[in-house]
Amino acid sequence: RSSYSCCYFVLPCCFFDFHGKYSRRQSKKTQYREYLDFVAEVGSVCGFHVEEDCLRIPSTKRVSLIGKNRIYPPAECALIDKQITQYINNRQTCAVVMCDRRVGFNHKDHSDGLRKEAGSELPENETAGTTWMPGFQPREKVVQIRNCASLPRDFVDDVVLNVANLLLNATPPKSCSHMHGGNTNIWNQGESLSLKEVAEHLNKETLKRLKSEYGGLQTLLKNNHQVFEVLNGRVHIRDWRKEKPSRKTKPEVKRHLSDEAFKTRLCWFFIHHPDGCSLPSESCPYAHGTEDLR
């Protein structure tokens, strides 16, 4: 609706309608195929000749829809705009009817939630309450990152070290020599603890800071997958000896180059683990010392 000369490319991913989550209407199609057809229908209603293409990307959601040409002359823009408005209103009515079937439905509360959930953006010159979609509230232009990625590095490092020591100290220490040589018989992997047990050993200030992030402690630990493995609500020290090698076979030259390029981070175990790293330097995907960095 921005202009007659507008073209578009869209890569549908999450299943959303204009006013909230997309509700399935056909059982004979997969949810993905039905949603692709819905997005293509939107393009057709807006007067585009819609084309479909499959991208060469490593994703299960790789079907794109493209609108390059209009199927009506510029003189019919006003007529098509009325058609678009009616289509949007009909979709909104369908969404409200579906929600009305729920017990204890509150129109005001739910409509506010739908507007926030849809989270679409309007052009710069459009504001909430326009004739395009009355009462629509776009999401904020600056979206706060709350997946633990913006936490200070020192804070994250302290939490990682505290949790790792907690897991390692949960088992009696084993007498062994330093593990930089790669001896795999006596390397201490520690015990596994539930997320609740780990949280109980962290101070209140740390927990308060983590609770303001989406996923909290679990997200932070999963982000640090070099050190931890979180399975079924339990935290483990990752044992890189058990990691399965890549199935892809590469030529020797390419494999050598990729190994060099891959070592851009220091090995946490080499620096912090009492037994060092469970893998020898040539097998570890991380650098054993700064001289190993590429």
Automatic annotation (TrEMBL):
Keyword tags: Cytoplasm, Metal-binding, Methyltransferase, S-adenosyl-L-methionine, Transferase, tRNA processing, Zinc, Zinc-finger
Residue segments, region Disordered: 110-129
Enzyme superclass (EC): transferase
GO molecular function: tRNA(Ser) (uridine(44)-2'-O-)-methyltransferase activity; zinc ion binding
Annotated compartments: Cytoplasm
Location, primary (coarse class): cytoplasm
Entry keyword Methyltransferase: yes
EC number: 2.1.1.211
GO terms for cellular component: cytoplasm
GO biological process: tRNA methylation
Family: Belongs to the TRM44 family.
PANTHER family: TRNA (URACIL-O(2)-)-METHYLTRANSFERASE-RELATED
Full protein name: tRNA (uracil-O(2)-)-methyltransferase
Protein's gene: Trmt44
